[in-house]
Design a protein that fits this description.
The complex is a heterodimer.
Chain A (H helix, E strand, L loop, with lengths): L2 E5 L3 E2 L5 E8 L8 E8 L5 E7 L5 E3 L7 E6 L4 E6 L8 E9 L4 E5 L3 E5 L2
Parallel strand pairs in A: 2-11
Antiparallel strand pairs in A: 1-3, 3-8, 4-5, 4-9, 5-6, 7-8, 9-10, 9-11
Chain B lengths: L3 E3 L2 E4 L5 E7 L11 E5 L6 E5 L3 E2 L7 E6 L2 E6 L8 E9 L2 E4 L3 E5 L1
Classes of the chains: A mainly beta, B mainly beta.
Chain lengths: 120, 109
């Protein structure tokens, strides 16, 4: 059974770079049809889809975040990563990683989420 | 700016039926938007209930169903149980990216 776990700093200073990693266990990140996804939930409870990446490196981003987001994948470590720069207080959120199955159009499973606060 | 709209809150009595809807600022929602519904309870990550309009996850109770209704995606809960009290989010696909609705807080009272 595939499990995902987010990791990274819980506090980032404004104008700096937010970097998170998602480790995939119980399955290979190179499995076809799976896209590896980042989402976030803002303090007001709004959810946002940030983007996803295929193991080949092909990426898809939300238009509103595209200029600040970079997704990458490390197949040797079975991990994928999110970089968001520069950040502001509005980027304070719980960040989730998830698997997206492109033939079913299914987001499952999700990681437990990690809170990132942007503050000086 | 694409906007997906849900009812902010709904209240239903135990044993009753309630329908949550999800509309798009671009027009009628069709199956090409692959509507997805998530349930989120306090302190937990969202969990998929319905994907691609009507398909259920293995853990989705039979009383939950997804459909298209009057140009919107819809999630219907029948024989509502107290444990169904939660936040429900819809998610729609737009030519390369996805957009969440603002969520519906469902109260069972």
């Amino acid at each position: 059974q595939v499990q995902l776990q987010e990791s990274g700093p819980g506090l980032v200073e404004p104008s700096e770079t937010l970097s998170l990693t998602c480790t995939v266990s119980g399955g290979s990140i190179t499995t076809i049809y799976y896209h590896w996804t980042w989402l976030r939930q803002l303090p007001g409870k709004d959810l946002e889809w940030i983007g996803y990446i295929y193991y080949t490196g092909t990426t898809y981003y939300h238009p509103s975040l595209k200029s600040r987001v970079t997704l990458s994948v490390d197949t040797s470590r079975n991990q994928f990563s999110l970089r968001l720069s520069p950040v502001t207080a509005a980027d304070t959120a719980v960040y989730y990683c998830a698997r997206y199955e492109s033939t079913l159009r299914l987001f499952d499973p999700w990681g437990q989420g990690t809170l990132v606060t942007v503050s000086s | 700016q694409t906007v997906v709209t849900q009812e902010p809150s709904l209240t239903v009595s135990p044993g009753g039926t309630v329908t949550l809807t999800c509309s798009s600022s671009t027009g009628a929602v069709t199956s090409d938007y692959y509507p997805t519904w998530f349930q989120q309870k306090a302190g937990q990550a969202p969990r998929t209930l319905i994907y691609s309009t009507t398909n259920k996850e293995s853990w989705t109770p039979a009383r939950f169903s997804g459909s298209l209704l009057g140009g919107k995606a819809a999630l219907t809960l029948s024989d509502v149980q107290p444990e169904d009290e939660a936040e429900y989010y819809c998610l729609l696909y737009y030519d390369g990216y996805w957009v969440f609705g603002g969520g519906t807080k469902l109260t069972v009272l």
